[in-house]
Amino acid sequence: MRRKRNAYVAATAALAVACFALAGCSSDDRNDSAVGTSGETATKEERSLAEQPAPAPAADRAATESEAQMTSEPAPPYGKPSRPAPPNGQDDMYFDHAGTNPFVATEDDPLSTFAIDVDTGSYTVVRNYVAGGSLPPEDAVRVEEFVNYFEPDYAAPKDQAFAVHVDGGPSPFGEGYELLRIGLKGREVADEDRKPANLTFVIDVSGSMGRDNKLGLAKRSLHLLVDSLRPSDQIAIVTYGSDARIVLDPVSLEEKRDIEDAIDALASSGSTNAEEGLKLAYDVAERQYSRDAVNRVILLSDGVANVGETSAEGILETIDEYANTKRITLTTVGFGMGNYNDTLMEQLADQGDGVYAYVDSFTEARRLFVENVAGTLETIARDAKIQVEFDPEAVDRYRLLGYENRDIRDEDFRDDETDAGEVGAGHTVTALYEVKLTSPEARRNIGTARVRYVDEKTNRTEEWTVPLRTEGELSDDLKFLAAVAEYAEILRGSYWAKESSIEAVLDLAERAAKDEREQQFVTMVKDTAALRR
Fold this sequence. Notes:
The chain is of the alpha/beta class.
């Protein structure tokens, strides 16, 4: 998905000017700033940056709302500037805070539109921090990637690309608020039924990768993936350090021994010319391109770049062309701590119409490359987006949890030239909203959700509409996801979670967790509570 970075920078600058103008104003005055000088309602983008949202969805939203009305506390920030990417060899981590969604008054704007996202890198990066005995920086946390790491048992579709699931109930972290879930389940594809895969691995072998939790773990992960592939699949390997080179021309999995030998021989040295490595990888991918196969570049790196073009913007142009005109997609897989560029890895995957994941352990590599191999390799839907329309008669205000850097203009929902998100076979996607109803009786019919995408199988644009409702009680799996989302909100320093606590999250997570992965989250919350003492 292409993100409008220039627009974001301009909006941040506008916000800085607005902050000076608003200094000393009351919260009511700041609410009025969302209205233009002629009395007309401002655009959604202007409201997102300028308005003081009403209540906070934390342990006591009503108390926070009252407090905001009585004090001149500054409006919660929408975004903040990022810092330069770290140079190779420096122990530093680079993240980019995308801001925090505000509450939106439904009568001002009933529409919420965003691209679907199935990335999970933020969750595993944070898990790595906590497992190592450190709290993560706030900028490392993206709420939707925490929620989407977990895979609720949504029913799979029979014919179309997606099945849509809607439910909700009273929010466990916001008295008087409802938690609404929109869940999607992608069409499942058995491994024996998936298309042949033409994969081009592009592997960072620079000096910054010379650790066992980087190149060592990357090599073990590649062996897992190779063991999961079929004889009809084809692999090429490109590496880059100070320069790029082909270490394995495209070969079928029937030459598995040659592939494994090439992986075993990888060793780190030199600087990091990611631009040259990616360009060469796409050249190789184009040579082995087949209309009847999955054509994918898979980048394994710590995201550090210090030779050639080093910024995400400078590298993205080439990737965009291949993704949109030639359907050669890019998956990025991150490794390592110490010096790691999460921002670059996420943006590359977005631009390359692929998925960003982070491998913090051999167990995570097995989940990604063995258990979810079909979803990792085969796309079932592209340019997928959701538009939610809330009924002003039923919903007073709403807030989308996460997806800040996946926002799409409402008028672009049906513009099929607008790039959006991609979903792999069997993937689940979950979006959570907190909503304030106009009355308890309104929960039966609070609006509609539309899902629009291009079906990869038929190459046809599909659009589905489902009614929105909440119930009298949350299901156990939604209670668990509520705990996950609130945990992420707390870690990222969200204004809306300032009255919440890790202890409340832990209590709910312990009661709702069922399987092994959910129990591991409970352990992570316990460790976080200990680190925060």
